[in-house]
Amino acid sequence: MQACAAPPFAVAHALSCDARWRPHDLLRLHRLPRFDNEPAWVRESFERAPYAVVRRALAADGFVAIGMRGMERSQRYGTWVHLDDIETAVSPEALAVRNPLAGRNALPAFAALALAVVQREAAGGALSEFVWGPTGSTGFELATQIPTVTLSSDLDLLIRAPEKLSHDIAIQLLRSLQAIAQCAGIRVDAQLETPAGGVALTEWAAGKARVMARHARGPQLVRDPWAPAHVAA
User: Fold this and answer.
1) Residue 22: enclosing H or E segment and its boundaries?
2) pLDDT tens-digit profile of 4-33?
3) Nearest to 201 by CA among 230, 158, 163
4) Residue 81: what are its φ and ψ, rounded to 5°?
5) Is 7 within 8 Å of 27 (Cβ atoms)?
6) Residues in CB range of 29: below 8 A, 6 or more apart
7) How many whole angstroms separate alpha carbon 94 and alpha carbon 78?
8) Domain limits of the chain?
9) Where in this chain does the record put each Phosphoribosyl-dephospho-CoA transferase MdcG N-terminal domain (predicted)?
10) CB 53, CB 25: distance < 8 Å
C-alpha cells in the first residue's frame, strides 16, 4: 500500500484477524469510512466500484484491514472497515470460474487465466491438485465487472497450500505457469498461501534456505512455512 489510514482503534487492540475474511478476498462494501489523510481518488474509486481487498494486517475485534485500488497502478490505499460495512465477500478461487466481460477474454491476462483453468480441469495437470484463483486486476475485474485489466496487466494467482509443498512439485507448478505465461505473452505471478503467510512460488521452487512469508504480523524470513509453529499461529 502506498499510503495507509491511521487505525480507528487503539493499536494495542490490533491483536487478530477475523477468519471469515482472508487476504485477497474481495469485499463489497455499503459504506467506507472517511479518514483525514485519504487521497481524493479513494472516494472516486469507491463510487465507481464499492469493493476493497482484504490485506494482511492485524485489527481490533469488529474491524477488517482492507486496501483500496484506483485506476492508476500507483493508487493504493490501506484503510479499515467495520464488519457492519461489509455486504458480501468473494474469494479468489470463486473468481476462477467467472467469465470476463464480453469482448475482453482476448486480453492476455484473461487468456492466461483461461489456459490455467483448462489445465486445472485436465487429469494430471499441474494445477488440478490445488485450490487457486486470480487476484490483482484480473480478480478485481471479475468481481466488479468494471474494466480494470489492460494489455500489459500481469496475471496474479493465489494458490492455497495448507499442506507442505515439496520443492519438486513447486518446480513443476512453476514451469507449468511459465509455459502459460509464455503462451499468453505476459507474466504470471503466483503466491502460495501457507500457514506462515503468503510465499512467492518462485522463491519456494528455487530451494532457498529461507523464504519471505507475508503475514498479518509483518513479513518474516522462514525456513519452513509449514512448520508446526506457523500452523498453530
Assistant:
1) none
2) 888 888 888 787 888 899 999 999 999 998
3) 158
4) -135, 155
5) no
6) 46, 50, 51, 52, 81, 85, 86, 87
7) 24
8) 3-90, 92-231
9) 22-92
10) yes
